[in-house]
């Protein structure tokens, strides 16, 4: 797992992100020893690699602690919000709690009903921070209407636009109860230039128009881009993000089929074989070199992650809370929905007498495999996107666009890599087929931060099993207030153009 040469320089650029949560973040331009958009534009003329470096600085934000504006041990970038989503959706159970992380505000859903809680602030602050970083890059390259004349500028701009859309997409999911029902309502402020000047909320439709425009432009700009590592967004990743955006609307399924087909054609990633699912050559979902990973980051000693990380919260074999009393497990009902011949059952500790019941001890693990092991995360990486989620989204779109025959063929082919007998798929149709695709998405991508997105686009009702510490057995609809974050108190105080949640 090599570190490429620009990363140390790039991480230095992320120093600008370490602002405490008490500070006003509606700032026109970054301050201190930080180049603003005009300075960056001049610098790019002198040193074209700086533009690329700043884009990679955006990627560094995704794994840097405190980028949600707090010193919480739940604040460590994108993977932190993946945990939030998995817990809120109910697929990840907090089954034991010694240290209290996630217990009341996330597992018990208290934060989403109280806009003063910092979890709301973290989500808002993190994604708008990435947006501001992307806007700095766009501005430095000539602005939103620039037509790049060279490949390096094209590829840098394409990545910045894709990352801007990626952040707006997560904001629509985390901050809006139901995108479809709120289509013409004012929900989120839009920023397409550096700085936060306190914009009023735009409608959901306007946010979606921006995301689609950004991603279509990014896809065009990234055509032909050969990225130096999986850290960067390439054309297939951008197309998959667009697939997520369009599918969350629930009315563009033929377009989702088209864009996910294109992404499948443009990626070199491939499905994991059965041995890889549990303990194959590349280990347990811990290596960015995995053939199925489309987008991820190589964690190493220079990055310096330890306890405050996704691995520090999830993995039995890291120096972690999961090893000493804060167990995150698969929902028992979801686990029992897997047939006995499903290879994925072996990813979880199936011993109801153990406090570590259904812990993912054979899916996610530090490769040294020492319980409560290394305090430095250097042999386990972060995955943001892999081939199977793209394939399952494509299958879902086929079924929802009326192409059930193709959907069943692809689903059966996929399940043949997980089950001894997938012949039952041929008898499915209508809602039963859709239910099976949704279930397989949850099973395959458990712990990877995709369950919440699937819950929303499938308008699901969730019922937690008995291995959750809180709210087990209570039906909850996808659009309930307590399953969606609130505009944080800090934003309402700092932005005079937003005075209420609604």
How would you characterize the overall build of this protein?
The protein has 502 residues and is mainly α. It has 18 helices and eight strands. The strands form four sheets. It has a two-stranded antiparallel ribbon with strand order 1-5.
Q: Regions with pLDDT < 50 over 5+ consecutive residues?
A: 1-38
The CATH class of the domain at 7-252 and 453-494 is identified as Mainly Alpha
Taking the sheet with the most strands, its summary is:
2 strands, antiparallel
Secondary structural class: mainly alpha
Number of strands: 8
Radius of gyration: 21 Å
* The CATH architecture of the domain at 7-252 and 453-494: Alpha Horseshoe
On the 0 to 100 scale, the average pLDDT is 89
The end-to-end span amounts to 47 Å
Percent strand equals: 5-15%
What is the string of SSEs from the N terminus onward?
A: HHHHEHHHEEHHHHEHEHEHHHHEEH
What is the helix fraction of residues, given as a range? 40-55%
Report the principal-axis shape: globular
CATH fold annotation of the domain at 7-252 and 453-494: Serine Threonine Protein Phosphatase 5, Tetratricopeptide repeat
Spatial strand arrangement across the major sheet:
1-5
Tally of DSSP helical segments: 18
Family: Belongs to the SusD family.
Domain SusD-like N-terminal: 108-223
Pfam families: SusD-like_3, SusD_RagB
Domain RagB/SusD: 363-476
């Amino acid at each position: 797992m090599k570190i490429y040469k620009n990363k140390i320089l790039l991480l230095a650029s992320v120093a600008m992100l370490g602002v405490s949560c008490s500070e006003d973040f509606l700032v026109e331009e970054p301050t201190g020893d930080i180049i603003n958009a005009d300075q960056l534009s001049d610098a790019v003329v002198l040193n074209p690699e700086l533009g690329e470096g700043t884009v990679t600085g955006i990627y560094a934000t995704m794994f840097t602690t405190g980028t949600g504006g707090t010193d919480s041990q739940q604040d460590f970038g994108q993977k932190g919000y993946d945990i939030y989503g998995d817990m809120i959706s109910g697929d990840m159970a907090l089954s034991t709690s010694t240290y209290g992380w996630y217990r009341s505000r996330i597992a018990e859903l208290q934060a989403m009903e109280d806009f003063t809680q910092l979890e709301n602030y973290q989500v808002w602050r993190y994604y708008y921070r990435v947006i501001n970083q992307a806007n700095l890059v766009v501005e430095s390259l000539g602005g939103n209407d620039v037509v790049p004349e060279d490949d390096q500028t094209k590829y840098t701009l394409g990545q910045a636009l894709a990352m801007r859309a990626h952040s707006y997409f997560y904001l629509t999911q985390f901050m809006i109860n139901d995108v479809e029902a709120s289509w013409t309502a004012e929900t989120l402020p839009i920023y397409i230039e550096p700085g936060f000047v306190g914009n009023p909320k735009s409608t959901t439709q306007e946010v979606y128009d921006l995301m689609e425009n950004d991603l279509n432009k990014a896809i065009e700009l990234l055509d032909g881009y050969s990225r130096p590592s999986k850290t960067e967004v390439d054309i297939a990743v951008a197309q998959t993000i667009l697939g997520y955006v369009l599918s969350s609307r629930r009315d563009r399924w033929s377009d989702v089929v088209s864009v996910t087909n294109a992404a499948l054609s443009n990626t070199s990633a491939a499905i994991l074989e059965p041995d890889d699912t549990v303990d194959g050559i590349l280990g347990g979902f811990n290596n960015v070199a995995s053939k199925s990973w489309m987008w991820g980051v190589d964690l190493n000693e220079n990055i310096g992650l330890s306890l405050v990380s996704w691995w520090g919260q999830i993995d039995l074999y890291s120096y972690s809370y999961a090893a000493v009393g804060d167990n995150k497990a698969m929902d028992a009902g979801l686990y029992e929905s897997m047939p006995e011949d499903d290879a994925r059952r072996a990813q979880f500790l199936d011993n109801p007498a153990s406090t570590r019941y259904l812990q993912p001890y054979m899916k996610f693990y530090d490769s040294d495999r020492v319980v409560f092991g290394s305090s430095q995360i250097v042999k386990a990486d972060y995955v943001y996107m892999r081939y199977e989620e793209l394939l399952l989204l494509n299958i879902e779109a086929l079924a929802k666009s009326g192409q059930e025959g193709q959907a069943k063929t692809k689903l059966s082919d996929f399940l043949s890599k997980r089950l001894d007998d997938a012949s039952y798929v041929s008898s499915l149709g209508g809602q039963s087929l859709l239910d099976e695709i949704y279930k397989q998405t949850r099973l395959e991508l458990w712990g990877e931060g995709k369950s919440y997105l699937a819950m929303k686009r499938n308008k699901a009702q969730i019922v937690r099993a008995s291995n959750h510490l809180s709210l087990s057995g209570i039906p909850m609809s996808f659009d309930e207030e307590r399953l969606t974050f609130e505009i944080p108190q800090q934003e309402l105080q700092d932005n005079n153009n937003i005075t209420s949640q609604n």
